[in-house]
Amino acid sequence: MNRRLFLQHSALTAASAVSAFSLPRQSLFAKETKFAKQTNASVIDMTAKPGRVKIVGPDLAATEVWGFNGQVPGVPIRIKAGESVNAVVGNALHVPTAVHWHGIRLPNAMDGVAGLTQAAIQPGESFHYQFTPPDAGTFWYHSHVNAYEQVGRGLYGPLIIEEESPPVVDRDIVWMIDDWRLRKDASIVNDFGSGHDKSHTGRIGNVPTVNGRYRDIFKARSGERIRLRLINASNARNFALTFGKLSPSVIAIDGQAVKPFSVTEPIVIGAAGRVDLILDMTGEPGSMMSVVDNFYREPFNLIKIVYEKEPLRDSALSSPIALAAPTIPEPDLSNALALEVNIAGGAMGGLRQAKFNGEWMGLREIAQQGYVWAINDVVGNKLDMPPLIDTQRGRSVHLTIHNETAFPHPMHLHGHHMKLLSVDGQQPLPEPHWVDSPLVMPRQSVELAFVADNPGKWLFHCHALEHHAAGLGALVQVT
Ligand code: C2O
Ligand code: CU
User: Fold this and answer.
1) What is the value of pTM for the model shown?
2) Which residues contact 333 (CB under 8 A, 6 or more apart)?
3) Which residues does a 6 A CB cutoff place in the pocket of ligand 1?
């Protein structure tokens, strides 16, 4: 029961080809490859620039994207726990940009929110990001300037921090899952931030990809144990993935360890969410299977898994898979700042009026300026607006988010992780777990708590990027 709840709501967690062509790409993300060895001293050069990527297939037209170093996903960053990220981000685009390190509890000045924590990186300029992530796990980075367009064009990449002693696996693989809106000629449909996308579910595309590939094939061997790090980099698409007859074990959610549990129901990963799985590849040598998404009405095959003829071993490994417990401070609910957070607006949402730039206004007038959502009756259209939460450092905050709209919202808090306490009054897992982008389904209420221990002004916003652009955002100030 608890498990099912997790899968339906956790949903909640918000939680990610036998073409010879694609195999080198896969190995790019495998642990054993060279890029993996970024050390403390090495500086990562990453430039936001246009590139051409064969998203729809090696023999078909390339897509003009924007990517870090022109790739999609962008240059992979993989460091060890305790090491620093030391990245010089250049801008070879014709528009300003900035990089947000999603899910990392880092100093405010490194958070990458242009206009709030830094000035945008102008074309031709660069910015040096340097911080030491306090947590090992699966994270990602992405543009935080007009993200609904820049992330949609490909400006994102994986950020993996390896545990000191990770569980033993044969391969450690990243699947960054995304969703593109492409024309027949594989070019990107240039309708970013359309009124319809803003007021409905966000930009949902027609080409779902894994590591920038549509309908890719992933080669595996019978008996192999894979750690699969799923990262959902979509603008707004949520995924609910099933792995055929395999029964994956979830070992981490949003980069933080959970007590491992195996699942047969779909694994829900909301936009911006991450789920780490241990997959024991128990299929027959030479067989194949599809990873299927069924979050929306029409299920589709996300990627095919094809087994090599030669098994790796006869029976699956049985060594332990649990990660070390997270080291995030526990919120004190008996002495917390408690707040109800009501999300309203959008199509079919029934919001009549809200405060826009401090004044009550009718929704129609607000919509004329491109905004349709409100948090506690305030349209989050500016970065200098009064904070939704203003608290002293060290205080525990207890939030209950009510989604009063017709659409799911993956609600991301910058600079902190939140403990997911309940979903519609019930615990989604036997034990509460940490999240940074919990997916709140329509009409759902989700209870979260965190210690506001990271000083600065932080964004709290919907990661359906069109929703954020249309006002679904607020500020949390910690002083
Ligand atoms: Cu991943 Cu404010 O974002
Ligand atoms: Cu939303």
Assistant:
1) 0.92
2) 396, 398, 449
3) 100, 102, 142, 144, 272, 412, 414, 459, 461, 463
Paired strand residues for 435: 418
Q: What kind and span of H or E run contains 282?
A: none
CB contact at 8 A, 461 and 474:
yes
Q: In this structure, are strands 433-435 and 439-440 parallel, antiparallel, or unpaired? A: unpaired
Residue from 452, 243, 224 nearest 332 by CA: 452
- pLDDT at residue 430, as a whole number: 84
Ligand 2 centroid to Cα of residue 441, in Å, is: 10
* Residue 475 clears pLDDT 50, i.e. is over it: yes
- As a whole number of angstroms, the distance between CA 110 and CA 90 comes to 15
Cα-flanking dihedrals φ and ψ of residue 264, to 5°?
A: -115, -20
Among protein residues, the one with the nearest Cα to ligand 1's atom 3 is 102
For strand 373-375 and strand 288-293, is the pairing parallel, antiparallel, or unpaired?
unpaired
Domains of the chain (ranges, CATH numbers): 3-307 (2.60.40.420), 333-478 (2.60.40.420)
CA dist list (Å): 267 to 13, 32, 184, 242 = 10, 27, 31, 7
- Closest listed ligand to the CA of 270: 2
Task: Give residues with Cβ within 8 angstroms of 55, minimum separation 6.
Answer: 62, 63, 65, 72, 180, 182, 186, 207, 209, 212, 213, 214
* Beta carbons of 79 and 35 less than 8 angstroms apart: no
Nearest-5° Cα angle at 198, 195 to 200: 100
Sign (positive/negative) of CA torsion 343, 347, 349, 354? positive
E strands, 296-394, where? 300-307, 336-345, 353-356, 359-362, 373-375, 389-391
> pLDDT tens for residues 40-61?
458 999 999 999 999 999 999 9
**220 CA from centroid of ligand 1 (Å):** 33
User: Distance, CA 428 to ligand 2 centroid (Å)?
Assistant: 21
The bridge status of strand 439-440 relative to strand 409-413 is antiparallel
